[in-house]
Amino acid sequence: MAAASSSNKQKKKDKNLVEAIDDALTVPVLQLGDEVPDFTADSTMGLFNLHEITFMFGFDPVATTELGMLSKLKEEFAARECKLVALCIDTKENHRKWVEDTQELQDCEVWFPIVADHNAEISRLLNLVRPKAVNAKRNLRPATLTLCVDIDRRVRFLQQYPVSTGRNFYEALRVLDTLQLTLFHQVVTPANWQQGEEVCVHPGLSSAAAGPLFSKGFNELRPWYRPTMQPDTD
């Protein structure tokens, strides 16, 4: 009887432990409009607080070309007043060696910090670890993630790629252009839109209200479909 009682107590403890782990490891899926989880972590350029960040793995051919391409797009990001930070699952020391290799292989200068997420716990905050996994580093999703975070630290763009596919950062720049344009003007951008091309009047804006706002006019093909020239961004 005493042995059975002891066994029941142990089972109850085990159950409580599992429930505690479940509660502790349940991380909400990050969605557009959410506030990005904040953290402070070490990086190749000192301690860092999250603002804008992109995620990759080091010492990998795909990630190395991505790091190189981001480095070469420095002026493009600067023109959009966009800060860039990378997050990689490794130590700061290994990141610095990887940066040296990347600069040689990609003929570039890495100008942004790489946050050291050595145990993948920051990645867990950003839903890059499988749910309820105890060991985050051993349970990573096979994906890279690009986030764009606004000045209020809200997620405005979120894109995942398989780790075998290098990301298209020209698309990230295009999205930045659309986000900045639509933030200050009552417009939306069509598929494959590029700077200087036609946009559409925001469907939530009536034509009567839109008239004074669009000096170049608009073509009302439908009450909700009204192409117009891109507003001046100066």
Secondary structure elements and pairings:
Layout: H1 2-25, E1 40-41, E2 48-49, E3 54-56, H2 61-72, H3 74-79, E4 86-88, H4 92-106, E5 114-116, H5 121-125, E6 143-149, E7 155-162, H6 169-184, E8 187-188, E9 199-201, H7 207-210, E10 227-228
Parallel strand pairs: 3-4, 4-5
Antiparallel strand pairs: 1-2, 6-7, 8-9, 9-10
Describe this structure in words.
- With 234 residues, this protein is of the alpha/beta class.
- 35% of the residues lie in helices and 15% in strands.
- The protein has seven helices and ten strands.
- The strands form four sheets. It has a three-stranded parallel beta sheet with strand order 3-4-5, with no helix packed on it. A three-stranded antiparallel beta sheet has the order 8-9-10, covered by helices on one side. A two-stranded antiparallel sheet has the order 1-2.
- Helix 4 links the parallel strand 4 and strand 5.
- Helix 2 packs across helix 4.
- The protein is globular and about 70 Å long.
- The protein starts with a helix and ends in a 6-residue tail after the last strand.
- About 5% of the residues have low confidence.
